[in-house]
Amino acid sequence: MSNKTRIVSGLLTTSQAADYLGYSKHTLKIARHSGQLAGVTGPIFKRLGRQIRYGRTDLDCWLSQFKNYSSSSQYR
Q1: Tens digit of pLDDT for each residue in 29-43?
Q2: What is the pTM of this model?
Q3: Beta partners for 55?
Q4: Out of 1, 13, 52, 58, which could bridge 44 as a Cys pair, Cβ 3.0 to 4.6 Å?
């Protein structure tokens, strides 16, 4: 089973969250330290001992703050 199929209890590893959001693991790690990702406050994460986990609903909430566009001419 790959990491993508082993999601338990709605909590994702950094790798899984990065795949879900379309960023690299390194970018999410930097976002945790800086507090910023894509020009806004980064997504919420949980620290479980030494492990970092992201809630899928937290990631969806973070994504929802961005506007949807049907063409590139709309955001210029």
Answers
A1: 999 999 999 999 999
A2: 0.81
A3: 11
A4: 58
